[in-house]
Amino acid sequence: MNQTANHAVQQDGDRYDAETLREFARALLAAAGTSDAIARTVADVLLDGDLLGHTTHGLALLNPYLKQVEQGQMTRQGSADIVSDKGASLLLDGRRLPGPWLVNQTIDMLVPRARQYGTATAVIRQSHHIACLASYLLRAIRQNMLIVLSCSDPAGQSVAPFGGTRAVFTPNPIAVGIPSAKPFLVDISASITTNGMSGRLAREGRQFEEEWLLDSTGKPTRDPAVLNQDPPGTILPLGGLSVGHKGFGLALLIEALTGGLAGHGRADNIKGWGATVFVSLYDPGAFGGNEAFLRQMDWIADACRNNPPRPGFDNVRMPGDRGLALYERQKKNGVVLHPSITPLLQDSAQHYGIGMPATL
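^ thats the sequence. predicted structure below, dont judge the formating
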């Protein structure tokens, strides 16, 4: 299996106590000037990314987030403005507040509405980056809600449409949290890999195991460094060279759900690292009923997990199985940080005069 395809892969690195890392991240964000509530929420979401094994979208983002706060590119306190409220649908202006704060606040706002209407949806324009999408799913599942979450960055382009060579889209992730006896946590993107993984491999002088990118002339390549060339290369849509029309279609759906519904997207020549976000909750109790929903999902889970594995696989895992097991193990035994993360945290610790956590 190509492990670079899956963010939820544990890497070798230093191990730290989870709660110590959480408090360290909170202290850094507070020192940068964010409100205490925002600092706690962002620290929680970033740590959850690493606990789940999404090492490019966890604490690896803390140093860049702090720099954005320092530069005035990330708002330090406050809440989103409500632009439109139709009861079951909301449009929010995030005012470039931290994405983790906005998304968690939005989920909490939608839960009672979904209980009332059966489903409730919000779109957030002008959010800052929202980190690891999987980090938010359990928040809704604990309320017995099915959640669909997606985002795009209207200021970024790194993925070309299928058949093209010029970037139009960002990787455009979409995540789904599905209640079950053991929840399903789906976190994928419309591209075959992400900017975060491409950047990490490029910095390490490594290549992907397969041709997941195109250079500027349209030649397939394994080298992520093409994204930084002039003119730049592009990441292929999900499905790659042969069936990338599927990822292209998914990217278009996510653009419609985010920029389209927000009325704020790529047509507006937006500047600055950020996100337009779609969040939708569904209450199974308002449809066929909670018990009936769980009966169907648990049957699917059993049919998949008990499926005879093909050569090269020990067993069939449901989305989220590995991440949830890793989450519990790392909370108990310590969080393994990818080697590239520690120097960034040390840099931030020195900058703000806050002691770096000791390794276990």
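The chain is about 40% helix and 15% strand.
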